[in-house]
Recover the amino acids of this structure.
């Protein structure tokens, strides 16, 4: 209901369906364990390679220059007369580019690009995977399915399905290799098997369906599962458009439009503070333990319902006041804000210590 209400506010057409209506719309779905579903008729899929090619051609026609197979080797900066650090250029394998503006859209490589300019980029790289099934009779033109309780998605791909999800214990890519671009990992079936039961329960036809291919690649994830956008507070002229948490194709058009306005006019038209890189303090954006723990929890809870007054379990106890223990002994329940443990409310019956993740 909440998603449907939010959709109406933004003009996204949707309908609440009963189990019977859901079955009529998607005959291959098991509806015996659901109370209903949310149907969005305009939801769909798009080919990433095709849309990138179309955007590139449009940009070229508008005067942009696209240089392929061009690696960035350095980002030049200077301190101006007011003591502010600014971008002055980019070094690449095909030459130097003089510019006062750089947009970091490097995905899992964004931290290494940021380091070239002295900018901390608070994201981590994880393995994210999906499988493509063999042909499934009757699946053509079926809607995409997201089962939040099972934390899985089933997206249509021709006469087959792409099956993936967000497992409870994702795999980190701790050493991001510079030359890994456009490469894939071998799928770890022990990790991915967490999605099989939920997917088969929702679409039982998968039991008798083979796997045509597997895709497991590096994806960037952030501590609050929101993108990193806007101008860095550390270097003027250094913008970020990264950390899209496996939702880049979905969020790219809107975020790209607003980021372009951010660069050209100094601010976006929409209120994007929740995406602004400045939402993280400098102490947090450089705290790798906090970033890793919170990103892990955010990934695992991607489809979870966020309840009022819900508090993160990860990245706790890292910044405490001198009165923390005194308050804890009095039954204080702490809330976490920007890494700080602050008093939320008190229990008169027992102490509520902050546990390690």
């Amino acid at each position: 209901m909440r998603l449907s209400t939010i959709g109406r506010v933004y003009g996204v057409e949707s309908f609440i369906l009963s189990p019977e209506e859901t079955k009529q719309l998607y005959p291959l779905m098991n509806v015996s364990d659901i109370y209903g579903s949310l149907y969005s008729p305009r939801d769909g899929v798009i080919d990433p390679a095709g849309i990138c090619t179309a955007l590139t051609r449009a940009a070229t026609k508008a005067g942009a220059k696209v240089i392929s197979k061009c690696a960035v080797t350095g980002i030049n900066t200077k301190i101006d007369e007011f003591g502010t650090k600014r971008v002055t250029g980019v070094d690449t394998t095909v030459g130097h580019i003089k510019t006062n503006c750089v947009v970091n859209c490097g995905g899992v490589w964004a931290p290494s690009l940021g380091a070239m300019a002295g900018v901390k980029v608070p994201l981590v790289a994880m393995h994210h995977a999906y499988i493509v099934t063999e042909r499934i009779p009757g699946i053509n033109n079926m809607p995409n399915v997201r089962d939040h309780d099972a934390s899985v998605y089933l997206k249509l791909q021709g006469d087959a399905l792409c099956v993936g999800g967000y497992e409870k214990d994702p795999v980190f890519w701790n050493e991001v290799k510079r030359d890994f671009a456009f490469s894939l990992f071998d799928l770890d079936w022990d990790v991915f098997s967490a999605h099989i039961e939920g997917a088969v329960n929702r679409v039982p036809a998968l039991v008798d369906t083979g796997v045509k291919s597997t895709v497991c690649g590096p994806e960037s994830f952030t501590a609050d599962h929101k993108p990193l956008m806007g101008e860095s507070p550390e270097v003027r002229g250094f913008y970020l458009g990264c950390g899209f948490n496996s939702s880049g194709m979905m969020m790219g058009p809107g975020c790209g439009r607003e980021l372009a306005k951010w660069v050209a006019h100094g601010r976006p038209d929409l209120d994007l503070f929740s995406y602004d890189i400045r939402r993280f303090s400098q102490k947090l954006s450089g705290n790798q333990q906090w970033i890793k723990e919170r990103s892990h929890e955010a990934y695992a809870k991607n489809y979870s319902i966020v309840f009022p007054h819900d508090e993160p379990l990860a990245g706790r106890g890292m910044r405490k006041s001198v009165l923390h223990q005194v308050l804890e002994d009095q039954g204080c329940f702490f809330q976490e804000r920007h890494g700080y443990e602050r008093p939320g409310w008190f229990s008169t019956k027992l102490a509520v210590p902050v546990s390690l993740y």
